[in-house]
Amino acid sequence: MDSLRSKIVPVSTILAGIVVLWYVFAVVLNAPFQRDLDRRAGETPTTMEFVVRTLAQKKPTLPAPHQVAQNFFENTFLRKVTSARSLVYHSWATLSSTLLGFTFGTILGIVIAVGIVHVTTLDKSLMPWIIASQTIPILAVAPMIIVVLAAVGITGLIPKALISTYLSFFPVAVGMVKGLRSPELMHLDLMHTYNASRAQIFWKLRVPASVPFLFASMKVAVAASLVGAIVGELPTGAVAGIGAKLLAGAYYSQTIDIWAALVAGSVVAALLVAAVGLASRIVERAMGGRPA
Amino acid sequence: MNQPASTKPATAETARQVVSAKNLGLTFQTNDGPVQALSNVDLTIGKGEFVSFIGPSGCGKTTLLRVIADLEKPTSGSISINGMSAEQAREARAYGYVFQAAALFPWRTIERNVALPLEVMGLPRAEQAQRIARTLDLVNLKGFEKKYPWQLSGGMQQRASIARALAFDADLLLMDEPFGALDEIVRDHLNEQLLDLWGRTSKTICFVTHSIPEAVYLSTRIVVMSPRPGRVTDVIESTLPRERPLDIRETPEFLAIAARVRDGLRAGHSYED
């Protein structure tokens, strides 16, 4: 209970601070347009009226928190999930490709790490390429991946998922290389005294030793996957997904919609990271971890 | 002082020789140039002996144990274990090795840790279970099968690691300062238990330590080593009986042997630094 309180108090303090700042910025940023409106309408509102109006614009430069909250609430809970206006519908579109890409990426990352740890040539040749791959701006590559795959007849979920894969395999590969190399010398010597084969050392020592590293890197990878999925929706003219919603909002200057979609995106991200964290805790418990 | 380690005539003894080192040397290449970890080590260990290696750090006692275990390759001389090369002996799982730390796998329960070498050797499940029960009983850890290492004290962890080394019934037990990290009360207790275990199993034990009382209390033979280069400076046969209650350590006989060990260490200039 105490630990809960010790977490809630600082977090909500920061949150309150952000909300206050947000309102201040909303007023300041929306003021020029509001002044313009009032001048054209020939009105001279009091300061209080003016502030309220800056926070109630239809297409504000920076929507106020309550506007975003209201939009988010309406589009999440009051719409049918099959409706194209529902944030649940869009979140699911993004989530499904995130999960597919994340699964691909995790598997690919593990395979690459196993290769790097066991094959000296791969260790020397592959790592620079892997690092270089992450220096390429994904926004530039994403349309090409979509176009190329569409040309060979692959459309829909897979191309989007592949962009998630592209972003998520990297942390997993790097983390797993470290994890598979994490066993202490003493443990390796021990296996050596048993004349254990490489396969036995791998399965009985390296793999279990790497599990904490796997989950740590999966937490990073799952967030990267979500970014990948959203980015993948931007250049494709996708009709569904958080990315599509962001793009549509940008076209029609629906700033409140954009912000609500961003909130939906961060909710999805939080859920994904929490899910990985939960899985990590369950596995840790099963592997005899000392309760914290 | 550099008397040969083996004082036994090389006759019918050969068959009962567990470890035989001739003119053994090992030089490590380091950034600061070559370091002679072992130089001209001649040593024969017979079946059923309890041999301690004692000396200050850097004298090569751990290195010698690791050479016997084929964890290091000698750069000169020869070594044979049960008449085989060290590598063949390791491949035949001729020895159990106990490290300075318990080195238990934290994700395995105590019984699964003891099962590790048995799994590697591909023993059937039923036999694994039987051996686990027997060896855990041998080190008095019955009832802790399902516990994870962190739930056990340091002394119990080290006992579990001894059980793991005993589980596959190798005749030779190599122990590298196994009780060095434990407090003296626990160490005394484990020393007593180890002697008891040795008496019951008739194993050959090579035991590295830097404690004079521990070496004298446990051993039938004490090999005194000294650094730069790592070498054997004295081999002391113990005159103590095999039955050794803890209070044997106050007897004049015990103290006399301890004094000889101390002299041996001093003669090897081990106290210089």
Automatic annotation (TrEMBL), chain A:
Annotated TM spans: 12-31, 87-117, 129-154, 258-280
Keywords annotated in UniProt: Cell membrane, Membrane, Transmembrane, Transmembrane helix, Transport
CDD domains named in the record: TM_PBP2
Entries under Pfam families matching the protein: BPD_transp_1
Listed InterPro entries: MetI-like, MetI-like_sf
Main location: membrane
UniProt KW Nucleotide-binding keyword: no
Membrane-protein topology: Multi-pass membrane protein
Cell location: Cell membrane
Domain ABC transmembrane type-1 as annotated: residue spans: 91-280
Family: Belongs to the binding-protein-dependent transport system permease family.
PANTHER family attached to this UniProt entry: ABC TRANSPORTER PERMEASE PROTEIN HI_0355-RELATED, ALKANE SULFONATE ABC TRANSPORTER-RELATED, MEMBRANE SUBUNIT
Protein name: ABC transporter permease
Organism per entry: Ollibium composti
UniProtKB/TrEMBL annotation, chain B:
GO MF: ATP binding
Signal peptide (UniProt feature, chain positions): none
A Pfam cross-reference name: ABC_tran
Domain ABC transporter per the UniProt entry, residue ranges: 19-252
InterPro entries: AAA+_ATPase (IPR003593), ABC_transporter-like_ATP-bd (IPR003439), ABC_transporter-like_CS (IPR017871), ABC_transporter_ATP-bind (IPR050166), P-loop_NTPase (IPR027417)
Superkingdom in the source lineage: Bacteria
CDD domains per record: ABC_NrtD_SsuB_transporters
Keyword set, alphabetical order: ATP-binding, Nucleotide-binding, Transport
SUPFAM superfamilies from the UniProt entry: P-loop containing nucleoside triphosphate hydrolases
Protein's UniProt keywords contain Amino-acid biosynthesis: no
Protein family membership: Belongs to the ABC transporter superfamily.
Protein name: ABC transporter ATP-binding protein
Originating organism: Ollibium composti
Lineage of source species: Bacteria, Pseudomonadati, Pseudomonadota, Alphaproteobacteria, Hyphomicrobiales
